Structure formats: structure tokens, C-alpha cells
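Sat 14:20. Reprocessing the chain from the morning session after the first attempt stalled halfway. Input below, unchanged.
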Amino acid sequence: MIRIAHISDLHVGMSSFEEDVFMKAAEEINNLQPDMIILTGDLTNHGYYREFQQVARYLEVFEAPLFAVPGNHDSRNLGYQTFEELIGERSWKLTMRGDFTVIGLDSSSPDENRGDVGRPQHLWLEHQLEDCVENGNFSIVAIHHHLIPVPNTGRERNVLSDSGEILQTLTSNNVRLVLCGHKHVPNVWKLNDLIIVNAGSLSSNKLRGKHGNSYMVYNISDEDIEIFLHPVGGERLLLEKVPKTLL
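Finished this time. C-alpha cells:
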């Protein structure tokens, strides 16, 4: 079994960042001993160099390997450059055990809130997913912006602008699971055979309604995918249990 912790929207550098909540969540996640942690953007609030330095120190408390993609807040004020210096590549591919692949996409644009994968990165994604299909790899894609609207988040303003083309590529290449952030509300959509999961905010108090800080955990066995919502300091909730692959 592979266990993945999915965190998002830290927003370090603003008054609404809750350091005590972050540290509590980090302790919980370390106790779960995931194989990896995926962070789907908005590590910072303004993309300032100083904020990224703070984030890098905070992320050191996690014991599992962590892989991040940038959010719209991270690409402000030349943050897209700083991300690569202090956090890592903005788009990446990771393969575990030879048959399990996670692809990270950068959907951010400098100093804009909108999301866009763009044609060059889309072509790269298509190539990577075709390799996964050819090799029989189970594939996951991580991206900051949401692919389809999320309930209970107010008026829709910045769903991924090329989401139609991206969804077509994902569904035609047997992607089973997509991880998103951005809206600070946890949610699961099932679209054909594709499962799209939005994580809530891990450590910002900019929350909607009664949603608290939370993160997602995925237990992926040879047979099933279990999707758990973990409120920070609360009891986990099984949101979905679906077959890993469909016949």
C-alpha cells in the first residue's frame, strides 16, 4: 500500500497563517508515516522571497518526502523564480516502485489569480501520460487550480482556463486521481472514471462557513483507493472508497 498526505494553501506570510495549527497538522501527518506528502500550492501569500524562506523552514518539520506545485499566490512578486530556488521544480514527474507515477503541474501565471496549464506544458503532460499508459503505470496528477467548480465556495471566478482540454487528456490516458487546492474547501468529484479531490486549507484562517483546517490522506492498495478527510485535531472521515482500476 502507498499512503499519500495531501496538503494545500498554507499562506505563510500573512496574519491569517496559524502557526500552531500548522505544527499540529505536521505532527499528525508525521505520525501517519506517509510515503510522500503532496502540497498543491499557495505555500506563501505574496510570493515574497522572505515568505519562501519561512516556508522552507516550516516544511523541514515533515519527515516524509514532500513535493509541491506553486499556486497563484506563489507566483506573485517574482515568486515563480524563488519557488524553483528554495522549494523545487514547478512541474515534475515522480515514479515509485516502477509502476506508480505522480505528475505535478504549474497552473500559475505571474501576478494573476487565474489558472492555466498552457500548450507547452500540456504537450509535456500528454507525453508523460502516454508513457504511463504504455508502461501500465498508475498515475496521479497534482495541480493548484481546480478543474471544475467546487460547491460552497461562492461565485466561480478562476477555474482552470484550459480545463476542458486538460480533462480530455486526463480521462483519455487513464488518470484515476487528480489533486487540487486553491478554494480552501475540501471536496471530491467523480467525473467518469476520474476522481478530482480538492484539499482545504491546512493552516490559514481564511475559511468558508464551518469548514476548518484540514488535509487529505489517500491509502492506495492494489485493489482500492481510500480517500480520508482529516480535520486538524479532529477525527478522520472516509469520503470515498473506490476500485484502484476499472475493468
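The chain has one domain: 2-243.
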